[in-house]
Amino acid sequence: MANTRKQLALSGVERRSVELDTIASVLPIDRRHELAELLTDEDVETLRHLVNQGMGSNTLRALTSDLTYLEAWGIAVTGKSLSWPAPEALLLKFVAHHLWDPQHRETDPDHGMPADVDEKLRRQKFLKSVGPHAPATVRRRLANWSTLTKWRGLDGAFASPALKSAIRVVPRMRRRKSTKAITGDVLAKLLATCATDSLRDLRDRAILMVAFASGGRRRSEIAGLRREQLTVEPPIEMPDGPPLASLAIHLGRTKTSSGEQDGVVYLTGRPVEALNAWMTAAKIDSGSVFRAIGRWGNVSPQAIDPQSVNAIIKQRAAMAGLDRGDFSAHGLRSGYLTEAANLGIPLPEAMEQSRHRSVQQASSYYSYATRRSGRAARVL
After folding, report:
1. How would residue 26 be classed by pLDDT, with cut points 50, 70 and 90?
2. Strand 291-293 relative to strand 299-303, pairing
3. Quick check: 336 and 265 in contact, CB under 8 A?
4. Are residues 216 and 122 part of one domain?
5. Which terminus of the chain has a lower count of CB atoms within 10 Å, N or C?
6. Would you call 183 helix, strand, or coil by DSSP?
7. How far from the centroid of its chain's Cα atoms is residue 157's Cα?
8. What is the pLDDT of residue 320?
9. What does the pLDDT read at residue 258?
10. What is the pTM of this model?
11. Which of these, 280, 250, 278, lies nearest to 264 by C-alpha position?
12. 267 and 232 in contact (C-beta within 8 Å)?
């Protein structure tokens, strides 16, 4: 009897793995088998429904990440998958485990997340932060939990006075995602470390150039980029030189697009050449564009993890003699707008490429460039 239950459980995991594979083109998943073990049949069916409804891939990816974390936390706490709708007591426990006072913890070791829950989540690589979570992260996960509950046709206790009171905490100071922007001069140093025709150098050079030139794409967008999103455009005629290769990247619906809008950004010249060189060398004509490279130089069929984009940038920074702690994937995004401002490119034109929705956020990089080179900074 026990063996029969085990076989049924295994078949369920395998079935969910196959179902997750069917939505991989919209939702790149690098821990698919682990997700199949954590998510329930109902979870997977909900994700498939959202894909069919045309939800933006970035939003869907974030929702899946939060759902997986919630399921992992729920199993670590209760020993079973989440119940729907979640009881108010479980919601309050989630807040208590993630928003706690470090000073109170010094005198009360039971305050905050229990050690056994913490250890389980860290072993599964779901918990990486040290100390309490950012209030914004907790609120986002609760909001996604509430949304998933409503999509199942259920009502939850997410508006209860007790829960609202529990999450009224003083927000932590937001840390910058990247200490320094990767502007043109820094990018040139990183690219100089990709000087050979090895697969790794070709891939990393393409990642750096495409991520920067396409407006500072997010690491999730770069890791999830697929060959089917690329279309060849007519060459750009140049008055004083040969035509430049042109390529369009169709981003689909993202968190900065709305309705049926299909975000499109363009690559011209050197970034297109770098991308084509990588895809030719790696023999990529479909599926994921940027893939892992094995120890013996074999190109994996799987996409790289978004965190790998961060690791590549830090590794290249160290190879260039820079402090790897100063740079991250977000530095490409902030660096693009900073460089555009330094070159005098109009803000609306730069925002069309970066796909920033907030003028206030994007203009902050322009204000920095103006202040740095303006008369007020040259009074002596």
Report:
1. very low
2. antiparallel
3. no
4. no
5. C
6. coil
7. 29
8. 96
9. 47
10. 0.56
11. 250
12. no
What is the token pair recorded at 219?
């690491």
Check residues 60 and 373 and name the one with the higher pLDDT.
60
Burial classification of residue 256, based on how many CB atoms lie within 10 Å of its CB (0-12 exposed, 13-18 middle, 19 or more buried) = middle
* Residue 30 in this model has a pLDDT that exceeds 70: no
Q: Which pairing describes strands 291-293 and 263-268: parallel, antiparallel, or unpaired?
A: unpaired
Mean pLDDT for all residues in the chain: 81
Separation of alpha carbons 19 and 17, rounded Å: 5
Give the CA distances from residue 26 to residues 29, 194, 321, in Å, rounded to whole numbers and listed in that order: 9, 30, 38
* Nearest residue to 264 (alpha-carbon basis) of 256, 274, 273: 256
> What pLDDT is recorded for position 287?
92
Considering the domain architecture, whether residues 131 and 230 belong to the same structural domain is answered as no
Residue 191 within any structural domain of the chain? yes
Residue 123 parent element (H or E): helix 115-123
Give domain status of residue 179, yes or no.
no
Rounded CA gap, 253 and 294, in Å? 32
List, as one string, the DSSP characters of 44-76: HHHHHHHHHTT--HHHHHHHHHHHHHHHHHHHH
Q: In this structure, are residues 293 and 300 in contact, taking their beta carbons and an 8 Å threshold?
A: yes
| Residues pairing with 248 in the sheet | 231, 266
How much of the chain, in percent, has pLDDT values that exceed 70?
A: 77
Distance CA 289, CA 280 (A): 11
Per the CB < 8 A criterion, the answer to whether 308 and 300 are in contact is: no
> In which band, very low, low, confident or very high, does the pLDDT at 305 lie, cut at 50, 70 and 90?
confident
Q: CB–CB of 182/342 below 8 Å? A: no
Residues 6+ apart with CB under 8 A from 300: 291, 292, 293, 294
Type of residue at 347: L
How many other C-beta atoms lie within 10 A of the C-beta of residue 341? 24
- pLDDT at position 230, please? 94
252 exposure class (CB count in 10 Å sphere: 0-12, 13-18, 19+) = middle
> Tell me, what CATH number does 300's domain have?
1.10.443.10
Number of folded domains in the chain?
A: 2
Q: Which two tokens stand for residue 56?
A: 């933006």
Q: Which domain holds residue 154?
A: 2-166
pLDDT confidence bin for 157, thresholds 50/70/90: very high
* Distance from C-alpha of 87 to C-alpha of 81, rounded to nearest angstrom: 13
